[in-house]
Structure formats: C-alpha cells, structure tokens
Design a protein that fits this description.
The protein has 203 residues and is of the alpha/beta class. The chain is built from 3 helices and 9 strands, in the order αβββββαββββα. The protein has a single domain, classed as ABC-type transport auxiliary lipoprotein component (Rossmann fold).
Length: 203
C-alpha cells in the first residue's frame, strides 16, 4: 500500500470513530421506591404468610416509570428507571411492611419458595403517574387475594386503589408520591390481611 493510500485509510478510520453511527448509551437515574417503617405491633398470630409477586401486564412489568398524560397515550419518564420491576418493588415493599408490623409470626416471599399457611397475591392494575388538572399524582391499584396454601381456596379479596398527589411535576417529587402511596397501601393491606387471616384460621 502506498504511503498516500495508507494516510487516506487512517483519516477515514479517524472520521468514523469521531462520528460513530452507534447510539450513545443513555445516562440513567435509578430510583428506589421510598418507604416509611410501620409501627411495630405485638405478635398476635400463629400462622405464616407468603407474599407473592403480583401479576401485571407487560407495561407495568418493567423498570420504566410509567406516566399517563392527559389522553389515553401511555408514556414513560425519560432517563430514569426504578431499581427493579414494579411488581417486585411492590412485593418487597409489602414484605418489609409485614415484618415491621410484626403481628404475623412468620413472613416470606415467593423468592424463597418457603411453605406458608396463607399466601397473599393478586393483580397489579396500576403503578403509574397521572396528570389531573395540571397536577401529577402517583396511583397504585392492587386486586389483592388471600389464599389458603393447600387448597388454593380464595379466603378473601379486595381492591386497593391509592392515589397520592405530588408536590410538583418533577420526577423526584413523583417518586416521593409513589413512596407515600405505597406506605398507605401497606398500612391498609397489612391491617386487612391480619384481620382476614385471623378470621380464616379461627373458623
């Protein structure tokens, strides 16, 4: 190869490296689901509970932070992600809430596959932010089911639908609103589960 052709080839390669056709990797901010501890209660049950990952559609079974602006188009905040898929985030949040509360003697999740007397599962219908009258809010909707382990009999079911208005429309404030909504859901769900479980075990 002549010296002139060699210089031309080097120049071409330098130009390709400076103007790559490959997209630049997106810089992401990763958020955990904020959580507040529930007040500890004395143990009041002799049964065990396993918290299963709720079922969800493909849109929610993702690390993307979904948002529904005015209209029906579903989108997601750019450049941000949850630290895990939404159903797993919620499952782990609920397990932590039951452990904080302490009324149920033994609590596990389906990740450990341990035997339990009762199982808490359901369908995650909403885990997204919405815009209403120019304000952002976080919404979590869970169709909860308490199931007897051996028979798979549904002992009780209830829809929990929680909305929490964010202080402003920034992603950080929306994530904060998700944490407050999950705290409220955890309080209501723990109380309901303990009551329904106690009723079922004594019938």
């Amino acid at each position: 190869m002549s010296r002139l052709r060699l210089l031309a080839a080097v120049a071409l390669l330098s130009g390709l490296s400076a103007c790559s056709i490959w997209p630049q990797s997106e810089v992401l901010s990763v958020y955990r689901l904020p959580a507040s501890r529930l007040p500890a209660q004395p143990v009041s049950s002799d049964w065990s509970l396993r918290v299963n990952t709720p079922y969800s559609n493909q849109l929610l079974d993702s690390t993307r932070i979904s948002v529904i602006p005015p209209g029906d188009q579903v989108s997601a905040y750019q450049g941000v992600r949850w630290s895990d898929r939404a159903p797993l985030l919620l499952r782990d949040r609920l397990v932590a809430a039951f452990l904080d509360d302490g009324r149920i003697n033994a609590v596990s999740s389906d990740a450990s596959r341990l035997h339990a007397d009762l199982e808490l599962g359901g369908d995650l219908r909403a885990f997204h932010s919405e815009y209403r009258d120019g304000r952002a809010l976080a919404r979590i909707q869970l169709e909860a089911r308490l199931i007897e382990h051996g028979s798979l009999r549904i002992l009780a079911s209830r829809r929990f639908d929680i909305s929490q208005v964010a202080h402003d429309t920034s992603v950080a404030r929306v994530v904060e609103a998700f944490g407050q909504a999950s705290d409220q859901l955890a309080r209501e769900l723990v109380d309901w589960t303990v009551h329904q479980g106690q009723t079922a075990q004594h019938n």
